[in-house]
Design a protein that fits this description.
Elements (H helix, E strand, L loop, with lengths): L1 H5 L4 H18 L7 H28 L5 H26 L16 H6 L1 H18 L9 E3 L3 H14 L10 H14 L4 E3 L1 H6 L3 H21 L2 H38 L1
Antiparallel strand pairs: 1-2
Helix pairs in contact: 2-3, 2-4, 3-4, 3-7, 4-6, 4-7, 6-8, 7-8, 7-11
């Protein structure tokens, strides 16, 4: 206990480094001598562990009063590896490498590599904006919502897509995972409003909160009892896609409502 009291400032950084380590291991997996589905399953576990660490390091820093500029910078770099680089490498090995038969004229770089660049570019911009907003109090994001799709949620989808749409499960044309990849990547740099998970739960009534909690407990119990890891990934895919679409729906409703209000005022 004395050791932790004297060195408590380093605990959040250790959790952040674990986040980075899980992301980097996920980057290396496609080059390992493993079966394709085994690669994506292990990668999914690593990215989900990175997401947990990403949530815990900030919590630990606040509880231990160990918030620092160095910790924030380290967290940003770790997130870039885990949710910016690793998902892109995994999706390249899954689908974009098949597009390398084509190449960009006069450059010679395989077309699949160029397409894969979209994700790390969007993730870097999303993380830079989030970090800048935290530094600038005038631009700080709402305590209840994100501006743009969160990079950890997007990163989870990049490892779930190869499992859900792999040849052993839901076989789909090559353009389906490509469209999903671009949708989640571009969503990160959007200005759509995404309510934070705790905000969604706390805004529910007491009864609705417990009904939601019991529903997910029963659902995952049934999956563990009768299903496979594919069914668990399918639930994650459906829930996260629904969350991603919620920002778009919120934007459309906001624009429609604002347009109606403007017309009413003009009358």
């Amino acid at each position: 206990m004395r050791f932790f009291k004297q060195n408590h400032n380093g605990i959040p950084k250790l959790i952040t480094l674990a986040n980075l380590s899980f992301g980097f291991l996920a980057v290396l997996l496609p080059f390992a001598n493993l079966e394709e589905q085994q690669v994506y399953l292990i990668a999914a576990c690593l990215i989900f562990l990175a997401i947990i660490c990403d949530g815990l390091d900030g919590l630990a820093a606040r509880k231990l009063n160990a918030i620092s500029v160095e910790g924030a910078e380290l967290d940003n770099l770790a997130d870039m590896v885990a949710f910016g680089i690793a998902p892109a490498v995994l999706m390249y090995s899954f689908v974009f490498s098949d597009l390398d038969k084509l190449s960009v004229p006069r450059i010679g770089i395989p077309f699949g590599m160029i397409c894969t660049l979209v994700w790390p570019i969007c993730a870097a911009c999303r993380l830079a904006r989030f970090h800048a907003n935290k530094q600038n109090k005038a631009l700080v994001e709402s305590q209840d919502a994100f501006s743009g799709f969160p990079s950890p949620a997007a990163g989870s989808m990049a490892v779930v897509i190869p499992i859900v749409f792999g040849e052993h499960f839901l076989s789909a044309p090559i353009f389906v995972p490509i469209i999903l990849y671009l949708f989640f990547a571009l969503n990160m740099i959007s200005t759509f409003c995404y309510y934070k998970y705790h905000s969604i739960l706390f805004h529910l009534s007491h009864t609705a909160f417990w009904l939601t909690f019991v529903f997910f407990i029963v659902l995952f119990s049934l999956i563990l009892q009768f299903g496979t890891y594919f069914h668990a990934m399918l639930v994650v895919f459906v829930c996260t896609t629904g969350y991603a679409l919620s920002g778009l729906v919120h934007f459309i409703i906001h624009v429609f409502y604002k347009d109606r209000v403007d017309k009413t005022v003009s009358l």
